[in-house]
Design goal:
Elements: E1 3-8, H1 14-27, E2 32-37, E3 52-58, H2 66-74, H3 76-80, E4 84-90, H4 99-113, E5 119-124, E6 126-127, H5 134-143, E7 158-159, H6 163-181, H7 186-189
Parallel strand pairs: 1-2, 1-3, 3-4, 4-5
Antiparallel strand pairs: 6-7
Helix pairs in contact: 1-6
InterPro entries: Flavodoxin/NO_synth, Flavodoxin_dom, Flavoprotein-like_sf, Protoporphyrinogen_IX_DH
Protein name: Protoporphyrinogen oxidase
GO molecular function: FMN binding; menaquinone-dependent protoporphyrinogen oxidase activity
């Protein structure tokens, strides 16, 4: 089986939650997965030993986390030698009218880093009103006004992630890696003919 690294940076935790779900979905296919917050990687960290890498980042004030950008830039050569994927988490991805804006964030990130992942996913994020301070709560309500509907309590947390889309992305990435590396997932090896 193959060894996948799922690395990410997160603001309030939704990107971490999505990274865990991606790793679990790929793991169900019999692959080994490791999940790592890019901010927690040891100084001696390398991509050596991984067959594929998935990088995730969230958008805050129109930008991805610097740590993810630095990780990709510093490891661009190693990433170019293996199957890779990138996923972005943003409120723009949850709003049909702002999908073009979300795609623009991805394009900017890829241009800045010079990286060309094999697969790209974009997922809606979450509003974590329970952890925001007063000013951030007001700001986020204003930013997300198009997503907030009257039947939702704007003081509670609201999740906009389409988990079926996350699972489909993870399965697509795993299938791509299996095809590229010539690996048959355990779940297919065990199935009756």
């Amino acid at each position: 089986m193959s060894s996948f690294l799922v690395t990410y940076a997160t603001g309030e935790g939704q990107t971490a939650k999505i990274a865990d779900r991606i790793a679990a979905t790929i793991g169900e296919r019999g692959h080994e997965t490791s999940v790592l917050d890019v901010r927690d990687r040891p100084e001696s960290f390398t991509l050596e030993g991984y067959d594929a890498a998935i990088v995730g980042a969230s958008i805050h004030v129109g930008k991805h986390q610097d740590e993810v950008r630095d990780f990709v830039t510093d490891n661009r050569e190693a990433l170019s030698e293996m199957p890779t994927a990138f996923f972005q988490v943003s409120l723009s991805s949850a709003n049909e009218e702002k999908h073009e804006e979300a795609a623009g964030y991805v394009e900017s990130f890829l241009t800045e880093t010079g990286w060309h992942p094999d697969r790209i996913g974009q997922f809606g994020g979450a509003l974590r009103f329970s952890v925001y301070g007063f000013l951030k709560r007001l700001m986020m309500k204003r930013i997300a006004k198009d997503l907030l509907v009257e039947d939702r309590n704007p003081t509670g947390d609201i999740e906009f992630t389409d988990w079926d889309a996350v699972d489909a992305f993870a399965a697509d990435v795993a299938s791509f890696v299996e095809g590229r590396l010539g690996v048959v997932p355990d779940t297919l090896e065990d199935s009756p003919e």
